[in-house]
Amino acid sequence: MPKRDYAPALAVAALIAAVVCALLGGCAAQPTLRPLCPPLVAYTPQEQAALARELRTHPDLTEVPLFLTDYANERKELRAACPP
Predict the structure, then answer these.
(1) Do 34 and 28 contact (CB within 8 A), yes or no?
(2) Staple partner for 47: which of 12, 37, 43, 54, CB 3.0–4.6 Å?
């Protein structure tokens, strides 16, 4: 009786087993993904009032209010995406 070469059949069987394992792996419970949220710095009303006073006393600062507006919007978005 001649020897049979089982290598191609074993390769196909291994490929089928790998595909089945990959498909069944999708049935496992998925972890809940949460965004990594940086902590927000809390500013007291007194600190916010002091900043507003400083900005009013220096009307030549044109870029600072733009940056602060962007910062405030970013904080608002972080609060929405990362509830406590």
Answers:
(1) no
(2) 43
